[in-house]
Amino acid sequence: MISSPSAPAQSHALAIRSVSMSYGAENVLNDISVDLAPGQVLGLLGPSGCGKTTLLRLISGLLLPDAGEIEIAGGKVAVPEAGIALPPEKRGLGMVFQDYALWPHMSVARNVAFPLQMKRVGAAECKERVAKALDRVGLGAMAERRPSDLSGGQQQRVAIARAIVAEPPLVLFDEPLSNLDRELRETMVEEIADLVAELNLSAVYVTHDHSEALTLSDHVAVMRGGRIEQTASPHDLVNHPATSAVADFLRLGCLMPVARVADGWTIEGTGLVLPEGAFEGAQAQVLLPEKALRLGASGPSTLKTTVVRAQTRSTGQALTLRVTGTPHLIRLSSSSPVKAGDMLDLSFSPEDLRWFPISDQPT
User: Fold this and answer.
1) CB 3.0 to 4.6 Å from 44: which of 52, 98, 238, 277, for a disulfide?
2) Where does the record place a coiled coil (predicted)?
């Protein structure tokens, strides 16, 4: 039995339950579970090879899981145990690809109209909906142009218009900005965020870029080695990383090993003693969050550092500091001019540290 993905009023735009998949002997995804409420964006974030693109292909129907269950808008689209496997064209999804995937011989309007033509929507309604979709992305005046006449950012807007023209229950973004230069990418992130909010889209956004995921997503799933390491709101992800691997990938600060001593813990190589951490055993590791660090000996705890690099930015200087007695580097910004070789004190409050077991260290 195959159920339709287009059901009324659902509690989830997307529900993934215990999904696993292997390529031969290689286990690519391991027991993935995640929910997405209607009108929200889920960011799939992680390094290359973590499994995020494979998971997106499972959602789209380009691949099928070995085990588990996938629902879109309340309808089961992939349940291997029950023989349910809807093909991509039956899932009613909108998709935005990193290479735009526009047909160069077609006008902008015909590119956008393609999903409606596949659904055999009448010509008059099709024309009206294409015009509306192009207006929404600010390209209403370019309907008759060819994609080659447009800039990269405009072509990406055409791809977004095509993805939303059929009003799908879920839109999938597969690293849509990776082919754009940095300045245009930053502009497009804001534009996509505004568009997603305006249209109240339910979406899954795959990226390896931290700022894209944190800017666009209501919830972010950080993936590592075929598993979801943590799913949380951008605020909770930054302020409460569940593991040192999450903290390290998001570059939230400096991870340093600590060892137990008679009166607490010490950051190895520094002689600095910290209050008792909530760990048993003789070793742990702490995250010194960048936002908690201050130049100068003004806080309860102080580290001695040496400036390795000082790079000029429009907002001041980007500093790379080496903690004296250790190989560890700390990066932060400064409005005061310094130069390589300068010795600086770096202060923080122990309450701002994040503690992790030593076994949790990133690989």
Assistant:
1) 52
2) none
